[in-house]
Amino acid sequence: MSNRINIWYLSSFLISIFVAIPIITVFSSFFQTTGDYVSVLKNTFLLDYIYNSLILLIGVLTLTFIIGVGCAYLVSFYKFPGVNFFKWALILSFAVPAYIYAYSLTAFFENYGTAFSILKNLLGEGNYNAHIPKFDGMLGAIISISFSLFGYVYVLTRASFHYQSQNLLELGKNLGFSKQKSFFKIILPSARPAIVAGLSLVAMETLSDFGSVSFFGVSTLTTGIYNAWISFDDLTFANRLSSYLLIFILGLFILENLSRKKAQYHTSSKGGFKSKSVIQLSGYKSITASLFCIVVFFLSFLFPVFQMLYWTIIFPKHLLDLNLIQLFSNTILLVFLACCVLIFLAFISNYGSRVSKSKFLDTLNTFSISGYAIPGIILAVAFITFISWLDLNMINYLGTESIKSIFIGSILGLVIIYFIRFYSLANNGIKSGYLKINYSIDESAYLLGYSKFKTFRNIHLPYLKNSVLLIGILLTIEIIKELPITLIMRPFNFETFATKAYIYASQDLLEAAAAPSLLLILIASCFILITSRYILKD
Amino acid sequence: MKRITLILLTLCFLKSVTLANEVNVFSARHYDSDIQLYNKFTSQTGIKVNVISGNDKSLQKRIIEEGKNSKADLYITADAGTLGLFDLKGMFQNSMSPAIKSVVPANFRSKNWTGIAKRARIIYYSPERVSANDLNGMTYEALANPKWKGRIVIRQSNNIYNQSLVASLIDNNGKESTTIWVENLVKNMARDSKGNDRAQILAVAAGEADLAIANTYYYALMLSGSKGADQQEAAKKVLPFFPNQGDRGTHMNISGAGILKYAPNKDNAIKLLEFLLTKEAQQHIVNNTYEYPMIEGIEPHKIIKDMGLAFKQDTKTEVANYGKYQSIALEIMLKANWK
Question: Which of A314, A381, A507 has the CB atom closest to B61's CB atom?
């Protein structure tokens, strides 16, 4: 045991505990009294909220699974017109935040919206409003969230398919499996950790989404949290509702772990890594494959971009009014700092739990990353509450100066909360990379006299280079899109593209929100394009 | 890499070091035109205006937790109830000066905060389907009349303007009577509440409903053409109606501001407040936001003037009371299944 407690173990332990702080704060609400809101809620909407959250979750998971795995499967195993384009183009959906998707969906389909204008220009005057479908409410929320999040499933699944050993596929062939059977019996199960990692990120983001559900007026648990807090001033009960969300997510994790049982997902080092042969599709099959990808690409990326572009062109004033250099440098500064901190610490934590092979650390790790399901705004407030508690105690017992201004309303504070919020993203990505490195490699390294650090630097790092790049992009995109935390924690006169877009949209100036939204999407897309070359390098 | 990080961090800290001649504004009211106004203020007085904008409760939480260390001087928001509730928590200090008192009517200010601009929450109707006779003597109370069954659209109950409207009804008619009113209004709704104020007006234009309830500036925004030609046309199919002209007058709400308890630059904050209530600033506000001016002698935007200026505003109900009844209002609305 003493052998296991080392610097790696300790740092891994500390990082997990740190990330768990807001979760602990949230759970501590069970020991505090709550206001009247509980009875109001119980009598009216609690069941509704839970039901809506469930429907939303099931809808989004189903849709992201079908789109994400479907696209990943097609581009990984088949050749059809445009496949090389779709490989990276489909990742572009990441650049569109769910709230901006929601704005576009509404602007396009609302009464006298863009669809109406198009029809009027094409066909002349007419009463089109009644015939234009209205994608609002639950349906709108499911569509917005799914199209902005399916990228998680797509990217992680594709990476997993890409490295799927040809041996496995040949095994299928040798066993006489049909394509369909190979897919369900071999390909899908062996990509399971990646699919599950993707879906669990989607699940957590869905449950913590506030922007698009509130925009569409869908009452989920998150709306309940917001109401408890905003309208009834009952932060304790808001925290308690958040903990229901967490219990729910933890339950999902445990279920998945149980059902996975003891299956291991390392690639075997024996027999070598053969590159995959890709099947050329022809005829209607290739058209169907192309069509599927085009539709997904159009709906997930081109549609919101066109809507925002349309407004920016009609009302160019809003674009010219923006202080582009400042918005850009603020956004990039946050991205850079947060990425460095997140990736560095996620590495330490993962390596720590790997070398110490501690069940306890694994469990703690799983527990702390479930914080992703806490709505960002609750997280930020939990942090502010924690800092002012700490500050008070430090002033009282240590006689220090107030530390609040260092953490609240500063870049440092922002980066810390980003760290807590996105830790599971960084951690999950590196973890799934690590799962692919067989333990026997570590052991060989130790036999060769490598220290733990040298193993990490010389063996793990090169192996994980792609995972790190992937995580880097995911984090960059997430931080560019992040809204509620930035909104509450930022310093004076500090705007990013996301805060600017939100501020206009909240004033019902969607046409003014279009320019910052469009720029946000374009910048995020640039990051994706620059790095996609490396991710997709065969 | 580490060195760059260090330099960047240092820069950030330097950036946050405060300058002496400034005023720090926490604003839940996000107009670009407000920023232009602050710039005017800076060029006239040399006082720099720093702004953080965000949603009300987040900003409030931050101010509360920052406590004595808060740099916030002035809190600006677009709902009287929100100002009143924050005041009840003891977060403001005396924000009055003789100059402010002399220009702002008493029911639109309290000791610790003042209104800056006004907006009315009114009824919009389709002249094709609703006759002048139908609207004769129309009041907010009469929206509960069964003759409007399935004909009214209004946004969701979590919207603060709705909470203030229902709060004003509680203030005037009592909780019991308002509870019944809300239940009947919900029965009269043409659909489950969704969308913003503009979407309600558009629903009437599109024939989904006959009456909508929305703030005045949303309608003006569409008429101005800044929402595109089609929505401008749509808005023209709908007409505004100012209710309760026979009794207390039309429900008014305010954009307002108060000086925070621990404001480090109180004097500058007073100066900014006084500036916002000058003729120059008021004219700038009404021209850009389509609100009603807070002080006498200012002409609202032409679109607003064309909607009619001769209506009676409710100056009887103290807007300071909205805050008191907002959470009761929401409770009533939720219980009545107002989405």
Answer: A381
